[in-house]
Amino acid sequence: ATQGFNHLPGAVVGDQNITARIGKPLVLNCRGAPKKPPQQLEWKLNTGRTEAWKVLSPQGGPWDSVARVLPNGSLLLPAVEIQDEGTFRCRATSRNGKETRSTYQVRVYQIPGKPEIVDPVSELVTGVPNKVGTCLSEGGYPAGTLNWHWDGKPLIPDGKGISVQEETRRHPETGLFTLQSVLTVTPTLGGAPHPTVSCSFSPDLPRHGALYTDPIQLSVWEPVPPELQLVVEPEGGIVAPGGTVTLTCETPAQSSLQIHWIKDGMPLPLPPNPVLLLSEVRPQDQGAYSCVATHPRHGPLESHAIHVHIIETEEGSTAGSVEGQGLGMVALALGILGGLGIAALLIGATKWQRQRRRGEQRKAPENEEEEEEHEELNQSEEPEAAEGSAAGP
Ligand SMILES: *[C@@H]1O[C@H](CO)[C@@H](O)[C@H](O)[C@H]1NC(C)=O
Ligand SMILES: *[C@@H]1O[C@H](CO)[C@@H](O)[C@H](O)[C@H]1NC(C)=O
Asked: Start and end of every Ig-like domain (predicted)?
């Protein structure tokens, strides 16, 4: 309907949002109306009190206590109520016959009293849910919201460590809202020992700031210092060179401790992380590892140490044989490059070695594969030495 005005020639569209405080007078001006009678104007309204559009008679009547047209053409609502929320329109014709329409969307509000925390506790215990208190805001409109703050930071309910139970009630006569919010927290281990908690009411209105309760000061009681458990993967901390070791520092659930790492008594310059990943380990990664956390109440906490050993395991020797083959290939390439003479010499030497070894292999057949490889490798580089080692055992 408002848009229709745009297409009327000579009509000035004045669509305005008004927020009026409950119980206070409100004056809406009829734009374009002559300041004094005789006037040609019409006020109509569609609010919580009307079923549809209601045209107000300029002569007054039963609606006078709700809204009446003033001599200057403005509309006065002596005391705004929730039922007065709605649309108000005036159509005025000036002395020279120009028509002007004004439209007002009226919303009402009431700022509640300062919210308060009722039944606050003074001491919380870590690791278990504690009811902190009930935040109460009475007499606001529209409903608005309650929010909790922990050391100045908003507490976002996560259903685990922080939970909030909210209830909204409406006064049967005034229609004003009562909000209540019960805060339950499970304080984290190692958190602030003396947090400050407050609650705020945020009105659902533009340009209106939040109202805060007086803060409450809490003491968080931590029965025992938390323990840090250090777990190593692979188990036993034994790894082949080039392998990966994962050290995990396990802190109790709901802990906010920051974990640093120590190797052989020296702090590792790494950002705090409960997991230490050593990948492609080298001999210098070997050592004793432990994790530490600085606890605000109990001081530094350190886990037991775990030793990481870098050892050629069975997997390591497989790697060794791959390396051997690689060198064999290099040797072969060198042989080709070196010319037929050297190649012939190598082949001859190899044949000779193999024939020689066949005799020995009868003594130790189980080592056949491994020995052959080692010999080929050594031989191709230094046939003399290979001969010696082959003859050795
Ligand atoms: C009035 O409020 C409505 C929402 O309630 C908004 O969409 C509109 O833009 C506002 N109009 C003006 C003129 O501020
Ligand atoms: C009309 O009179 C009322 C009350 O005296 C005043 O608040 C309002 O601003 C006046 N309207 C105009 C358009 O002057």
From this structure: 9-107, 226-307
Atom of ligand 2 nearest to the CA of 30: 13
| Ligand 2 centroid distance, CA of 105 (Å) | 19
Q: Which residues of 69-103 are buried (b: 16+ CB within 10 A; e: fewer)?
A: beeebbbebeebbbebbbbbbbbbbbeeeebbbbb
Neighbours of 326 (CB within 10 A): 11
Q: What count of residues does the chain have?
A: 393
- pLDDT at residue 363, rounded to an integer: 44
- In the three-class reduction of DSSP (H, G, I as helix; E, B as strand; rest coil), residue 380 is classed as helix
Lowest mean pLDDT: which of 118-132, 227-241, 343-357?
343-357
Instruction: Say if residue 2's pLDDT is above 70.
Output: no
- At a CB cut-off of 8 Å and minimum separation 6, what does 322 contact? none
- At 181, the amino acid letter reads S
Whether the CB of 29 sits within 6 Å of ligand 2 = yes
The closest-lying atom of ligand 1 relative to the alpha carbon of residue 105 is 1
Q: Is 71 in the pocket of ligand 2 (CB under 6 A)?
A: no
Torsion angles phi and psi, residue 86, rounded to 5 = 155, -155
144 residue type, one letter:
G
* Residue of 351, 248, 254 lying closest to 303 (CA atoms): 248
Find out whether the beta carbon of 248 lies less than 6 Å from any atom of ligand 1.
Answer: no
User: pLDDT band at residue 325, thresholds of 50, 70 and 90?
Assistant: very low
Residue located via tokens 């609606």 = 63
| pTM for this predicted structure | 0.59
Taking the C-alpha atoms of residue 35 and residue 40, their distance in angstroms, rounded to an integer, is 11
Pick the closest to residue 386 from 346, 359, 358 (CA basis).
346
